[in-house]
Amino acid sequence: MKIKFYSIPVLLTTIIFFSCVSNADNFFIPVPEPWYFERSVTIGVDINSIIETKDGASAEFLPEWLLAFLEGGIDAVEMLHLFNNKYVFIGVNKNVNFIVVNRWADFYSPVQDFPMLAAVRIENRMILTSSLYPDDEYGFFFERLVKNAYNAVYPGVVKNDTSWIKINTENDIDESINRNPSEIYMSFVLFSIDKPLMQDIIRNLITQTLETVTPSANQAVAVNRLRQNFFEGF
Q1: Which of 104, 149, 187, 225 has its CA 20 to 30 A from that of 60?
Q2: Of 11, 214, 211, 221, nearest to 123 (Cα)?
Q3: Is 223's pLDDT higher than 90?
Q4: What is the structure's pLDDT at 25?
Q5: Diameter over CA atoms, the chain
Q6: In-domain check, residue 97
Q7: Measured at the alpha carbon of residue 7, what is the angle toward residues 5 and 12, in degrees to the nearest 5?
């Protein structure tokens, strides 16, 4: 069985086109990038390339959480005192049009949009734990759990903050927008949720998923191992 399910956001990516009144070019909003294959992975933004932020004219005006994210990934943000005993999730978007990224951040919601970030992180945690292809390791449990995570309700999620930066990209080719702009905007949405609450939600998702599948003996062993160590590094 080779059900290549990664990733739900990749499968569900929808490009939304906007027309600028004063410009014939089209702008689009892709879904946020899943930066969670490794918690310490950063998005590769050179702090020195930042020429404007939401709060000022240079990187020195960045909020503490965003600076931590750019320099050290999710791990660095969760180490901040503000997020003690909380999981942090950050949606990221980019575009040459400031209005597009700003509106995206304004409307990106804990109810409608957070489940995608949660599902990506749950899926990637399973991938990292698997020694084989995840669908070989866990059987249909892998696909069903990620689907359930995407459709789940996450009470207690807080949209803590939004921010944006403008960066000089003269030396970078941005393949995602099929052009080489000299400047681009990146928007960030910060969510947090108490760790005990998130862990209970995931445990319930795992239990509910197991009730709908019949894993083989080897798959059952793999799933049980996953249940025991799922939150190590999550």
Answers
A1: 104
A2: 11
A3: yes
A4: 41
A5: 62
A6: yes
A7: 105
109 falls within a domain: yes
Q: What is the pLDDT of residues 197-221, one digit of tens each?
A: 999 999 999 999 999 999 999 999 9
**Where would I find the H helices in the chain?**
8-11, 64-78, 98-107, 114-129, 134-138, 140-151, 195-210, 217-229
Structure confidence at residue 76 (pLDDT): 94
Domain extent for 203: 8-229
Torsion sign over Cα 199, 201, 67, 14: positive
For residue 42, with 0-12 CB atoms within 10 Å meaning exposed, 13-18 middle and 19 or more buried, which class applies? middle
Assigned domain for 2 exists: no
Cα separation, 47 vs 63, in Å, equals 13
With respect to residue 64, please indicate whether it lies within any of the assigned structural domains. yes
Joined tokens for residue 99 = 């209005």
Q: Report the number of distinct structural domains present in the chain.
A: 1
Confidence (pLDDT) at 48: 92
